[in-house]
């Protein structure tokens, strides 16, 4: 427990400092986190990061991760990142034929899904921080909602939890805890919005609170399902007492793309 607390304080202080700094330092820091998260996924799949498949996976993830402005400076071309990523997928599918299924369709699926999951998740975190004037507040707002949801779900579930939410994936989570987490997020989010009205209306803010809380919990379940599928307790051990980067950022990298795709940010 002591190790967990110390790691949480130090890790939280470093992350929040980078959020405050913003700019290229934050983007570079997030790029490092995303790379570690991708390596964690590769190891869960028992793929060496410096193997051909490991390197292709990392390159695919970086392609989706980097801001468009960076990409345009590094690779001046008429093609967008998404168009190049689609081309990479087609090349990978071609390799399943060339290698006579030594490189399988399932492996192609892993490269594509893991690249999208990690790459786009952290990409939209960088993009949110870069929003003029409100980027810093938006990141803190979503972080606050996720942390409040986790805490609310834990304490409500511990006291009143009776009905399991999804026992096959996460046996300890309950429906009562999940609802408690959403309510807690709305209460704390409303207080934050009162002092920092960063949305056009309170209705929009409420929608963001509920979406972030619900999908934050889903993001946690997605990562739990991944770990169960690959029979691992934690995604990694880079954070003593907390597991890996994916264990700590699973909700955030799931919520950020959802908020952007729904045009709530």
Can you summarize this structure?
The chain is mainly alpha-helical.
Give the topology.
Layout: H1 2-21, H2 23-44, H3 52-65, H4 68-74, H5 81-98, H6 105-129, H7 135-160, E1 164-166, E2 170-174, H8 175-195, H9 202-229, H10 245-261
Antiparallel strand pairs: 1-2
Helix pairs in contact: 1-2, 2-3, 2-6, 3-6, 6-7, 6-10, 7-8, 7-9, 8-9, 9-10
Please tell me about this protein's structure:
The protein has helices at 2-21, 23-44, 52-65, 68-74, 81-98, 105-129, 135-160, 175-195, 202-229, 245-261; strands spanning 164-166, 170-174. By secondary structure, it is mainly α. The protein folds into two domains: 23-122; 130-265, no CATH class. The model has no long low-confidence stretch (mean pLDDT 89).
Keywords:
265 residues; two-stranded antiparallel ribbon; 2 domains
State the secondary-structure class: mainly alpha
Overall spatial form = globular
The SSE order reads HHHHHHHEEHHH
What characterizes the major β-sheet? 2 strands, antiparallel
Number of domains: 2
The end-to-end distance, rounded to whole angstroms, is 36 Å
Oligomeric state of the chains present here: single chain
Gyration radius (Cα, Å) is: 19 Å
Approximate helicity band = over 70%
Which runs of at least 5 residues are low in confidence (pLDDT < 50)? none
Please tally the β strands and state the result: 2
What is the overall number of helices?
10
Would you tell me the overall average pLDDT? 89
Give the spatial strand order of the biggest sheet.
1-2
Task: Tell me what portion of residues adopts beta-strand conformation.
Answer: under 5%
Organism: Halalkalibacter wakoensis JCM 9140
Keywords: Cell membrane, Lipid biosynthesis, Lipid metabolism, Membrane, Nucleotidyltransferase, Phospholipid biosynthesis, Phospholipid metabolism, Transferase, Transmembrane, Transmembrane helix
Pathway: Lipid metabolism; Phospholipid metabolism; CDP-diacylglycerol biosynthesis; CDP-diacylglycerol from sn-glycerol 3-phosphate: step 3/3
Protein name: Phosphatidate cytidylyltransferase
